[in-house]
């Protein structure tokens, strides 16, 4: 490969030397060839003192000047020949142009007249448009003025209204001050009476602690209270009907009630209402939670509370350090004597003038889960679908459902879907227990706690609306008084 390269270079040098000699021999004829102009520095004669590039530059200028001169001579020669021919035709063109001028003048004159008439109309339209624009502009200014005036009127009206409201408020405040002064004047004579009322309330609270609150402040637990069952520990709200507790008793009823604004008490980590009954080893009996030496008022108030009814009338609850015995909702033992006593208490509220003796019911008041009640905006629905906060129909309109009691009872009257117990109160001229033979079948039912203490029911085998008492029987507003009677028993 090197040999070939050297041979090619040598061949190029020899060929270039021969070509250079030929060009230099015919320099005057070939100096303006394109390839020679580009490579003129290779052909500089030795006798010329300039360097090769200056020589090439001079040669390039010489060639460009000659080519430009030849080109211009050729072009201008042809132009001069054409001009000579044109000059000959100039006379003819002059005649033609004169004819065209005459023709254009004849055409332009009517066109000019037409344009003049159009321009005159255009000026008239422009003048009319100017007047219309001026009217529109003036109308817009008037509209703007009216708008600004309306805004100021609205502001003035607003100010007037605010001043009027301030005046009304001042008048109301003056009336309230007068009423307050009159209230104080008329209240002073009643002050001794109010003292006696307060003393009576304090006396009731001292005699029956915890009984002056709402239905949820009587004897109920927080939802996460740990109840000791036979097979473990359960939150009270998670227990099931029929479940066996650690003390051998059976859960007969689970009651969900509204909480109270009163804070709960705490005993060994158990949150419970102050009026609930707890076993006292010191007194060897059940006492109110608030009176127990271990009890302390907490800061916890809950929206929903829970309690039970058990076969032993007691609830075993797991505390932080030990289990504690609490009474259930009923408190009274499940015996004929106490059942008769409670039935008598209820009759004093429902039928105070009735002094007759009636047979004592054998079962607590309860309704079949499929008995229907009329729910606000839903019509008649099964009792099992009712929840706290719903509104159901009663004889005075609509009453709010405060709580729900699910319970197991032994024996009932009627067929499935219409079963009730003989402990239920039904209004028929007066409040009475239902008549009918009680069977011995165990079944699960529901009772409600309502604001009115009553609600309408409709059995599936009847279209008649029947007014019944709720779970509290006496109504939750009378619980305080009924428990005072119960405490005496």
Task: Return the CATH topology of the largest domain.
Answer: Endonuclease - Pi-scei, Chain A, domain 1
Strand content: 15-25%
CATH class placement of the largest domain: Mainly Beta
Tell me the major beta sheet: 6 strands, antiparallel
Number-wise, the strands total 21
Range of helix content: 40-55%
Mean pLDDT: 85
Mind telling me the C-alpha Rg?
Answer: 59 Å
Q: What count of helical segments does DSSP give?
A: 7
Strand/helix succession: HHHHHEEEEEEEEEEEHEEEEEEEEEEH
Shape: elongated
Number of domains: 4
Termini distance? 133 Å
Low-confidence stretches: 204-213
> Which class do the helix and strand fractions yield?
alpha+beta
Per CATH, the architecture of the largest domain is Beta Complex
Written overview of the protein:
By secondary structure, the protein is an alpha+beta fold. It has 4 domains: 1-27; 31-164, no CATH class; 208-327, Hedgehog/Intein (Hint) domain (Endonuclease - Pi-scei, Chain A, domain 1, Beta Complex); 336-488, Beta Complex (Endonuclease - Pi-scei, Chain A, domain 1). The chain is 43% helix and 20% strand. The chain is built from 7 helices and 21 strands. Strands 3, 9, 12, 15, 16 and 19 form a 6-stranded antiparallel beta sheet that branches. It is elongated and about 160 Å long. Mean pLDDT is 85; it is low at 204-213.
What is the structure about, briefly put?
43% of the residues lie in helices and 20% in strands. By secondary structure, the protein is an alpha+beta fold. The protein folds into 4 domains: 27 residues; 134 residues, no CATH class; 120 residues, Beta Complex (Endonuclease - Pi-scei, Chain A, domain 1), CATH 2.170.16; 153 residues, Endonuclease - Pi-scei, Chain A, domain 1.
């Amino acid at each position: 490969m090197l040999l070939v390269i050297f041979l090619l270079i040598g061949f190029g040098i020899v060929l270039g030397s021969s070509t250079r000699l030929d060009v230099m021999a015919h320099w005057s004829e070939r100096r303006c060839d394109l390839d020679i102009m580009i490579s003129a520095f290779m052909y500089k004669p030795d006798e010329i003192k300039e360097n090769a590039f200056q020589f090439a530059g001079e040669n390039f200028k010489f060639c460009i000047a000659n080519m430009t001169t030849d080109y211009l001579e050729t072009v201008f020669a042809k132009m001069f020949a054409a001009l000579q021919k044109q000059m000959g035709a100039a006379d003819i063109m002059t005649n033609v142009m004169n004819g065209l001028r005459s023709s254009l003048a004849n055409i332009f004159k009517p066109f000019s007249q037409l344009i003049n008439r159009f321009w005159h109309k255009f000026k008239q339209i422009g003048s009319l448009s100017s007047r219309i624009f001026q009217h529109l502009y003036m109308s817009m200014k008037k509209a703007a003025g009216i708008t600004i005036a309306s805004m100021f009127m609205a502001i003035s009206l607003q100010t007037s209204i605010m001043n009027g409201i301030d005046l009304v408020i001042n008048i109301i405040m003056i009336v309230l001050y007068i009423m307050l002064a009159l209230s104080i004047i008329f209240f002073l004579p009643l002050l001794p009476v109010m003292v006696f009322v307060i003393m009576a309330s304090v006396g009731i609270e001292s005699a029956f602690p915890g009984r002056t609150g709402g239905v949820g402040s009587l004897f109920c637990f927080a939802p996460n209270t740990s109840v000791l069952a036979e097979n473990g520990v359960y939150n009270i709200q998670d227990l099931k009907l029929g479940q066996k507790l650690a003390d051998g008793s059976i859960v007969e009823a689970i009651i969900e009630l509204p909480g109270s604004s009163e804070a709960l008490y705490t005993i060994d980590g158990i949150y419970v209402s102050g009026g609930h009954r707890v076993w006292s080893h010191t007194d060897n009996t059940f006492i109110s939670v608030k009176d127990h030496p271990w009890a302390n008022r907490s800061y916890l108030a809950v929206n929903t509370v829970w309690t039970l009814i058990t076969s032993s009338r007691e609830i075993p609850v797991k505390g932080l350090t030990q289990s504690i015995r609490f009474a259930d909702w009923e408190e009274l033992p499940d015996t004929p004597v106490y059942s008769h006593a409670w039935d008598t208490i209820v009759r004093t509220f429902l039928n105070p003038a009735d002094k007759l003796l009636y047979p004592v019911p054998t079962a607590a008041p309860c309704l079949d889960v499929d008995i229907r009640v009329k729910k606000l905006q839903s019509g008649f629905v099964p009792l099992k679908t009712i929840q706290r906060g719903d509104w159901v129909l009663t004889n005075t309109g609509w009453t709010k459902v405060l709580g729900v009691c699910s319970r197991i009872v032994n024996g009932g009257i009627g067929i499935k879907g219409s079963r009730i117990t003989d402990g239920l109160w039904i209004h028929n001229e007066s409040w009475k227990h239902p008549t009918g033979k009680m069977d011995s079948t165990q079944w699960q039912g529901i009772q409600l706690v309502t604001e009115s203490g009553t609600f309408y029911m409709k059995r599936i085998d009847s279209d008649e609306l029947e007014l019944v008492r709720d779970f509290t029987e006496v109504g939750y507003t009378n619980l305080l008084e009924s428990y005072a009677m119960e405490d005496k028993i």
